[in-house]
Design brief:
Number of strands: 6
Structural class: alpha/beta
Helix content: 40-55%
Radius of gyration: 24 Å
Oligomer: single chain
Strand order of the largest sheet: 3-5-4-6
CATH superfamily of the largest domain: Spore Coat Polysaccharide Biosynthesis Protein SpsA, Chain A
Distance between the termini: 35 Å
Largest sheet: 4 strands, mixed
Shape: elongated
Order of helices and strands: EHEHEHEHEHHEHHH
Length: 278
């Protein structure tokens, strides 16, 4: 368990229950996960929030799925118990929206992007950079595993109401904006050609829409009376070409980075031991 500079008695209660508590001075869920991934050495990792909303009884099933399938991540897809709504409306909408965006751009099989209930393999954890600082960590975990096409699955799990007096630290708008920015940043890093060529296309389309009046006037009068507009159009086409070139170059760099990461990933045995083991 990670005591992420908390101000309540969570750490004391955890110690009294026999848990080993690791202190992390930097606040934020991502910082806590980063510290735990660095400190804990295990073959299988179970990741869950300490707010009693996740179904602990589902952990053995999720671990078995990981080991039997030699997978790298199992995501607990949350289903509120008894049909009750445990999510705040903004959280529920944001989760669905971001899940759809990641499904669209990264071919994600997950319908609960922001679930904090996950089972992870050693080879995933030890090759995961963990850059996120706050609640963007689930997004980073998901896109990382999708980028490298690691074997994954999801498992339906019960999701319980928060205990009385317990409040979510997730801010609907502030953290929602951070998650959206994280998705865009990871899209830029993981699929730079798609990201920059989309920007290049938008600029080129806008410049093209401005071009006909300039050409028509030139054909009729053999002059360019709106010279500033013409210069802007030329500049936009040049900028579009620059973005496209950046996308092509960064795509090759991204491919090289993926190859290096793949080699590092293959240095670790899959869950349950080597595939060649009898």
């Amino acid at each position: 368990m990670c005591d992420n500079a908390s101000t309540d008695q969570t750490a004391a209660v955890a110690r009294a229950a026999g848990a080993k508590v690791i202190y992390e001075g930097h606040r934020g869920k991502g910082e806590a996960i980063r510290r735990l991934f660095a400190e804990v050495d295990a073959d299988v990792y179970v990741m869950a929030d300490g707010d009693a909303t996740y179904d602990a009884a589902a952990a053995p099933q999720m671990i078995a799925m990981l080991l039997d399938g030699k997978l790298d991540m199992i995501v607990g897809s949350r289903r509120p118990v008894h049909g009750t709504a445990q999510y705040r409306p903004g959280h529920s909408f944001g989760n669905r929206l971001f899940s759809k965006i990641v499904q669209m751009f990264f071919n994600s099989p997950f319908d609960d992007l922001l679930s904090g209930y996950r089972v992870l393999s050693r080879r995933f954890v030890k090759t995961f950079p963990a850059e996120a600082k706050r609640f963007e960590i689930e997004t980073e975990l998901t896109i990382h595993v999708l980028e490298h096409r690691m074997p994954v699955a999801q498992c339906l799990t019960d999701y319980f109401p928060r205990p009385d007096g317990s409040l979510s630290k997730l801010s609907t708008f502030k953290d929602g904006f951070r998650i959206l920015v994280t998705i865009l940043q990871l899209l830029r890093d993981v699929k730079p050609l798609q990201f920059f060529s989309s920007i290049a296309l938008l600029i080129a389309v806008f410049a093209t829409l401005l071009t006909p009046p300039i050409i028509i006037t030139f054909l009729e009068t053999h002059t360019v009376p709106r010279l500033p507009t013409a210069l802007v159009i030329v500049g936009m086409f040049i900028l579009s070409f620059v973005f496209l070139t950046c996308g092509i170059i960064l795509d090759r760099i991204s491919a090289s980075r993926r190859h290096s990461h793949r080699l590092s990933y293959l240095q670790h045995m899959p869950p349950g031991g080597s595939l060649g083991k009898r």
